[in-house]
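Task: sequence in, structure out. Protein: Malate dehydrogenase.
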Amino acid sequence: MKVTIVGAGAVGASCAEYIAIKDFASEVVLLDIKEGFAEGKAMDLMQTASLNGFDTKITGVTNDYSKTAGSDIAVITSGIPRKPGMTREELIGINAGIVQSVASSLLEHSPDVTLIVVSNPMDTMTYLVHKTTDIPKNKIIGMGGALDSARFKYRLAQALEAPISDVDGMVIGGHSDTGMVPLTRHATRNSVKVSEFLSEDRLNQVAEDTKVGGATLTKLLGTSAWYAPGAAVSALVQAIACDQKKMFPCSAFLEGEYGLNDICIGVPVLLGKNGIEKIVEIELDEAEKAKMKESAEGVSKVNELLQF
Ligand SMILES: NC(=O)C1=CN([C@@H]2O[C@H](COP(=O)(O)OP(=O)(O)OC[C@H]3O[C@@H](n4cnc5c(N)ncnc54)[C@H](O)[C@@H]3O)[C@@H](O)[C@H]2O)C=CC1
Ligand SMILES: O=C([O-])CC(=O)C(=O)O
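Result:
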């Protein structure tokens, strides 16, 4: 199993590290445009192999796509991250050009690749890859909801004063400060709805804190987060590489599901060796449907800014 990660920056390197530590891939290629950068990150990571006990071979290359040939899975993390006070959508001007050219270079050398898009604004970047390549829709996956759901569970566990492993929950919708739809009504602690333990006000606070999870970290760190994003990407890569059929909310191209068309947005999917093997349509109540519709309108507005 060969995995390429384009962009050896904070998220790309974190993702490579988690993939290596889980030791399910034979090879990880890190590619970056900055001379020597991916080579350096790969060497540093390889020097953790004997300490962390993995055999995954990590190599780094400067913009040489021939070294990515035959990749089964590729992750696109290349592009700029936001700074405090910015929205993800403000990154579109620079990142759209980068994502489009990276996707096309990857495809030249790995025509059967499954692509995971991370660069922001992620739902729009995923849509861009759909519109500008002939990769089948099941093989283009946007990572956002897996991260947002992990943050939701963190916030729920805090509110419940419970261990995170007791908690389950999911965030669907667009990966943006306003567009996320944390499914508070469906969240549980050991199969019991969290609404049995938390007031409506407290649950609303959990949802709001979840939605601005990325912005909160960007303010604290001066740039956007990388540990949880890297871990979330590695979980998606593992689900595909190991054919796990695990359910994650991912940005998927919709053709009628959830009443939406011609859009990539976060919905629950089953991930296995064929990428998105199924889009899972769960029952939403009227309030959740309205939030999903509003979120989709926001994503579509950003998509309209694309030029291709
Ligand atoms: N979807 C999600 O949930 C998340 C998305 N992100 C996004 O991921 C992206 C990367 O974030 P970070 O790793 O923190 O940024 P970073 O600045 O640390 O790394 C980005 C890397 O991309 C490289 N790069 C730029 N243009 C390139 C090109 N044409 N080809 C190859 N490499 C190129 C840069 O040299 C840099 O090393 C950002 O757009 C950020 O907003 C970050 C966290 C979560
Ligand atoms: O907040 C950002 O810009 C990066 C990101 O998507 C996240 O951490 O959720």
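The pocket of NAI (ligand 1) is lined by residues 6-12, 31-34, 37, 77-82, 91, 95, 98, 102, 118-120, 122, 143-144, 147, 175, 223-226, 229 (CB under 6 Å).
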